[in-house]
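Project outcomes to date are best conveyed with an example. Our students and postdoctoral researchers have been running inverse folding experiments weekly, and each run begins with a structure described purely in tokens. The record below, which covers 223 residues, was selected by the lab manager from last quarter's runs and is presented without edits.
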């Protein structure tokens, strides 16, 4: 092997495998679509603690995926090595919201499609996905459930409290009941007619009712 052969097998031969125009255009589009994904994520976020770092991760994920796929598509040998290298990568970050998985997959998909040269598919697909998420995620398909905890002195006060709640709310379902001498505790799921919660004050002042507590359930509701 001569000195020239060493330079011929060098990685410098791959410098021109991807043109600067292709790289610039792909990264610029990835950044733009990543910003769009970040905007949709910010508008549709409904969790407890908003993470700005996750939003920036969505932009970076789109650009990083674009760079990786550009490298893979430019060299068949490199693509085989990349598959082996990425197969040993393990991500341990906990995803708390199921919708966050959709945003991560969306960013990765945008990077793959852009690097493959399917620009219209990436742009139009992102616009459609963004509109669907903005419409459906922010739409409330059910009334927020509340839990009413009532402590009564006897059966009569329990019956009056239950009848009163049936008239004040849309729906009232007994979830649990515990009874002992001189005390009855009711846990009921209710759906309010509006945002008015003054009926709890009236309920707590009823004869035989020792206390009444209204608790909002902020988590995901199933059923």
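After processing, the design step wrote out the following sequence:
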């Amino acid at each position: 092997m001569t000195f020239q052969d060493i330079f011929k097998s060098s990685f410098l031969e791959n410098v021109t495998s991807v043109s600067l125009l292709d790289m610039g255009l792909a990264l610029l589009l990835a950044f733009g679509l990543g910003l769009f994904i970040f905007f949709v994520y910010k508008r549709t976020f409904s969790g407890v603690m908003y993470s700005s770092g996750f939003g920036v991760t969505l932009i970076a994920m789109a650009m990083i995926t674009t760079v990786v796929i550009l490298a893979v598509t430019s060299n068949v040998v490199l693509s085989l090595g990349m598959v082996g290298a990425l197969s040993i990568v393990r991500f341990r970050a906990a995803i708390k919201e199921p919708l966050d998985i959709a945003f991560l997959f969306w960013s990765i998909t945008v990077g793959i499609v852009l690097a493959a040269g399917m620009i219209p598919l990436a742009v139009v697909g992102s616009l459609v996905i963004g509109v669907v998420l903005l419409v459906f995620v922010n739409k409330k398909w059910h009334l927020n459930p509340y839990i009413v905890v009532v402590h009564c002195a006897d059966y009569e006060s329990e019956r009056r409290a239950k009848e009163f709640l049936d008239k004040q709310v849309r729906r009232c379902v007994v979830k649990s009941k515990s009874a002992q001498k001189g005390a009855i505790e009711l846990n009921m799921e209710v759906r309010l007619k509006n945002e008015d919660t003054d009926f709890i004050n009236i309920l707590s002042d009823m004869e035989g009712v020792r206390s009444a507590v209204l608790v909002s359930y902020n988590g995901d509701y199933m059923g």
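DSSP finds eight helices and four strands in the chain. Residues 219-223 have pLDDT under 50 and may be disordered. The training component of this project remains on track.
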